[in-house]
Design goal:
It contains one helix and five strands, in the order βββββα. The protein is α+β, with helices and mostly antiparallel strands. It has a five-stranded antiparallel sheet. It is elongated.
Length: 94
């Protein structure tokens, strides 16, 4: 069985009825939030979005990847701790 291609996006923020998504290359996409499944619209959600014809994301089939969210948060936490150790003033925060 061949795995269907997909892309990873993160919900960066909500702007009214819109969501702003960022892919792993830093590209942003604005989308009407209603095009995503309800539980996939929260800020910080990591989404796996299958690609359809011509590699166009099929937004209605986006799936929230909670394991990837946890992994990314843990990675960011480690980076923040490393920055805090290097900061003589101790005022680094996110």
């Amino acid at each position: 069985m061949t795995k269907k291609p997909s892309r990873v996006f993160v919900v960066d923020r909500r702007e009214g009825k819109m969501v702003v998504l960022v892919d792993d290359d830093g590209n942003t996409t604005e989308l009407v939030a209603a095009r995503l499944p309800a539980r996939s619209r929260l800020e910080g959600s990591v989404l796996r979005v299958p690609l359809g014809n011509r590699s166009v994301p099929v937004w209605s089939k986006a799936v929230r990847d909670r394991a990837e969210e946890k992994r990314r948060l843990a990675e960011l936490s480690k980076r923040l701790e490393k920055l805090k150790r290097k900061d003589p003033g101790g005022d680094v925060s996110l």
